[in-house]
Amino acid sequence: MLQNDGFRALDRQTCLRLLAGVPVGRVVYTKQALPAVLPVNFCLDADSSVLLRTSAGSDLVRAIDGAVVAFEADEFDAETRSGWSVVVTGRAALLTDTDGHELLDRPDSWMPVRDDVLVRIDSEVVTGRELTGA
User: What is the pLDDT of residue 57?
Assistant: First the structure.
């Protein structure tokens, strides 16, 4: 059922299915006490956490290790005025082993990363909305 604003709330499973179908999202975190947003390649692991790869010495790693962050991905079609947006909120942590590296070694990655580390964002809260055309 559509709400008055034209959006329909999505359940957790639908949100996760939609996330699994796109390669790029945005991690939302705090940098110098201000909100910051960074587009990243990502994938979902077996327990539906978000995995992303970045450089070990990056500002992103220093800002999010152990912090609660948000992660957003979406897909919109301007012509049909339809699409969806999903937000995952949870604690971010650096992974110290190599589990998940093969998931992120994909040809659609934006750029090669040296001295990379994996960041895992637990999917503690998953919300989404769908717009089905005007």
Answer: 83
